[in-house]
Design a protein that fits this description.
Elements (H helix, E strand, L loop, with lengths): L2 E2 L2 E2 L6 H5 L4 E8 L2 E2 L2 H16 L5 H12 L5 E9 L15 E8 L8 E7 L13 H12 L4 E5 L5 E4 L3 E5 L5 E4 L7 H9 L3 E3 L11 E6 L3 E8 L2 E2 L5 H11 L4 E2 L1
Parallel strand pairs: 7-8, 7-14, 11-12
Antiparallel strand pairs: 1-2, 1-6, 3-4, 3-5, 4-16, 5-6, 8-9, 10-11, 10-13, 13-14, 14-15
């Protein structure tokens, strides 16, 4: 069921999503009625709403909309909360200050997922700190990478520093066996944030030239958990590193919050 502010969606209200794609969202994996990092997801929605619309979003109200839309659904699935203004005017975006909350859901893949092969591309997302709806660039590069025989794209900035994937954060296990998260303009992912709470790490610039020295790499987001990266361009990486196992176990061991 798709609900807009807790009510059945009027298709006309969704036109602005297809025609302007202005808004923000978060996706949450639900397992047996629980969400890992639920509070972080709600904090993201409130924070991004101030940035995108200059409006205050009330997390308890959002949670109520989510419960109404997915209450009673068993098993594992992904719920997406999209915040947008159905009255958005492309010529006058400054007037968009009355966002509404769209809640949808879809099936979730079983974990763990197979390793990823990624291709580095020069790209940086607009306003990287916001999980916004502007996915054209990211998906275009994903498509191009897949046409070249890879699974996804890994972004590299003009400073030759690695940042993130299109819809996931990236982490590395360096030559000492330490977890390193790239420092720079990246989305503060919820799964990344949870792993940083439960596993020792450092945050530092990661250059493209240093890829050949790392022992392993992994992608993280709410739908994939911790997913090993098998190749970065032509560099082969371990997908069975013990730190990867520890990270995956740490994530799966995070107690979910009841939805």
């Amino acid at each position: 069921m798709a609900l807009l502010n807790g009510q059945p969606v009027d298709p006309d209200a969704l036109k602005v999503l297809g025609l302007t794609n202005y808004g923000h969202f978060t996706s949450m994996r639900v397992d047996d009625g629980h969400v890992r990092g639920l509070g972080l997801h709600l904090e993201r929605l409130v924070r991004d709403c101030r940035t995108v619309f200059g409006a205050t979003l009330h997390s308890e109200q959002v949670l109520g909309f989510v419960r109404e839309a997915v209450g009673g659904i068993a098993g594992s699935f992904v719920v997406r909360v999209t915040v947008f203004d159905p009255a958005f005017d492309m010529g006058h975006p400054a007037t968009a200050d009355a966002p509404k909350v769209l809640v949808t859901h879809r099936s979730a893949s079983d974990l763990p997922l197979p390793p990823l092969g990624v291709k580095t591309v020069p790209y940086q997302r607009d306003i990287a700190q916001v999980k916004h709806l502007g996915l054209f660039g990211a998906l275009h590069h994903r498509r191009a990478a897949q046409l070249d025989g890879f699974d996804d794209a890994l972004f590299v900035g003009p400073d030759h520093l690695i940042s993130e994937g299109g819809t996931w954060n990236v982490g590395f296990i360096d030559e000492t066996g330490s977890v390193v998260w790239p420092k720079g303009d990246v989305l503060p992912g919820v799964t990344m944030g949870l792993l940083q709470q439960y596993h020792e790490h450092t945050t530092a610039p990661v250059s493209l030239d240093s890829v050949g020295t790392v022992q392993a790499a992994f992608a993280t987001n709410t739908t994939i958990g911790v997913r090993p990266i098998s190749t970065i361009d032509d560099v082969q990486l371990s997908t069975e590193h013990p730190v990867l196992t520890a990270l995956r176990e740490a994530y799966l061991g995070v107690p979910g919050d009841p939805l």
